[in-house]
């Protein structure tokens, strides 16, 4: 005789069914892990702050390579360096310790506006009677308000050594109108007392030339000349240069350049 199975209680069957269904049901979706931003992170106040690595710092906009700090220099003072300024323009200025300007020049580097260029210029003025501490300053003018920006300075000492030709007037930065006249005075000690005054444009091309004779050819003496600007001379910066030619080979020597503005 076969054994008869006893029926399971109803509550046990229900419990087994609920357990089976629970095992098959999907679990809760996992919470996604936030990916950290490469450019920002949140502060306690909720403000985003940059955490990205900043770009490498570029070099100085303007640099004076020569003369070196505390160098002893003679007139004309030759300066050179590099620059990466807007449209390659920059200003060179030599100042006394009291802040007085001895000479200022507007010049152009070989390139700018994103490409570093080189520059060189001469600042010519009447030499001091004794060693004079000065500051050589280079800067560009702000396109917004014309104020000096990216200023660099080098202290130098100007010696009293006198060049063979010295233009006393005009001085750096003086102005003259096209067709106007400019009185040139100064001191010179050159062979046979004769030398040349020349007006050169920004490219170095002579637009006006006049021979001058000083009072003496054996010692430093006075000279004077009156130059008339061409009536059609375009406005801009020009160099008034006094120079002599070598008796040996005819080469140009003793250049003394003073920058003036024609306007």
From TrEMBL:
Give the residue range of the signal peptide: 1-25
The answer to keyword Glycoprotein applying to this record is no
> Where is the region Disordered?
28-65
Domain spans labelled Bacterial spore germination immunoglobulin-like: 62-147, 166-251
Keywords, ordered alphabetically: Signal
Question: From start to end residue, where is composition biased (Low complexity)?
Answer: 36-60
Which Pfam families is this protein grouped with?
Answer: Gmad2
Q: Which PROSITE patterns match?
A: PROKAR_LIPOPROTEIN
Q: Which InterPro entries match?
A: Gmad2_Ig-like_dom
Q: Which residues form a coiled coil?
A: none
- Entry protein name: Bacterial spore germination immunoglobulin-like domain-containing protein
Organism annotation: Cryobacterium arcticum
